[in-house]
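#struct-help
A.M.: can someone run this one for me? Single chain, 430 residues.
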Amino acid sequence: MWLTLIRQVILGGSLMVCSTAAVTQPVSPPAEVLLNLNTAVSRTLEANPRLTALGYQIEAEQGRLLQSGLAPNPQLGVMMENALGSGDFKGIDSTETTLSLAWVLERGKRERRVDAARAALTLTEFDAKVHQLDAAAETARKFLGALAFQEQLLREDQAVALAEQTARAVEKRVLAGRTPSADLARAEAELARMRLNREDIEHELLTARHRLAAQWGNTQPGFTRVSGDVNQLPTVDTFAALLERVDQNPDVSRYLSEKRLREAELRLQEANARPNWQLMAGVRRFEQSDDQALVAGITIPLARRNLNQGRIAEARAQLAMTDANRVATRVQIETQLFAIYQELQHSLHRSTVLREDILPRLERALVDTERAYTAGRYGYFELRVVQAELLEAQTALVESSIDVHRHLVEIERLTGTTVTSTATQSEGLR
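D.P.: on it. Structure tokens below:
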């Protein structure tokens, strides 16, 4: 499965410089460092900057959960009465001193706060998993982008080699007086254009590698090539089978966690509608008679009306909105799944036709055209047309194959599961 590829693999190379007292040997070229999709996704999940930030968000929710379970501290009270008055109450001889402790009775609010905080933590942890899938999918997309430019660079190398071969053949015919010099100029111009195209792809490939490395927080790639065979295409499950897996999509599943959070918040707001009670107990000392007595009391606010009805109504609306959003998200995912599945089937068909029908015929046509050109039956224009058609078909095959794998990434992200049959699953990019 594209989004759960976490394995350990990659061999690095070393640059060695050998020298003697008399002669310095040439530096050997750096060993090629390959990067496969497994390693790219693994590095992303371990070091992606956004995923690291989500880890701190989870820690913050854990702190809120800890805070929600803390009960209010008791209050110590000291009260002096009948002191520093006049007459019999002059001085402190008639003072009554009360030392008391008071406790707040939250009436179930703390349990509701804990439930809401725990549900919020669960939702945040689920969101972190969703972001992990998103990051893995984005890494797969950027990996495919780098692989696509890498394959295009190979096609451009072939185009340059073919243009060089053609220029040499045209030059021989010009020297033999069998072809006008204008054909040689055109062939040399075409060779220059092919080399320029190759340079453009080379720059695009360099940028694609940097963008891929940025997925795990690196500003330098640290690899020279991405490994994979884009032409190894899988057999995909039916659309009906994929449709049954939509509920496993993390974006749909998260609404279950969000619903639990909204339900917990509603219960909390309903609990907050009940005012806190305050229980007090203490000891009173009578200075005049040197006696002591226990005192106790309870404070119960008079709730003439519900002062939290607005927040309760808000919590109920949030709960209903969660259900509505879940339905809307599922409809959207099913629609996207259908559209991408159709594109996937088209790309698979297109790749098959190009590989089995079009390319073999164009390759034979090029061989025949080159022979005819050498024999003088065809001119440069006919040769160039067949070459262009072959190069265009080769490029189209690469693009179609890359599109197949891109559609697989999107479908697996939409379903949250592997979409290829077990026996025929592509291992070309793993």
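A.M.: thanks! The helical segments are 37-47, 49-68, 109-175, 181-213, 239-243, 250-272, 309-375, 380-415.
D.P.: also worth noting: The chain has one domain: 2-71+106-273+308-424.
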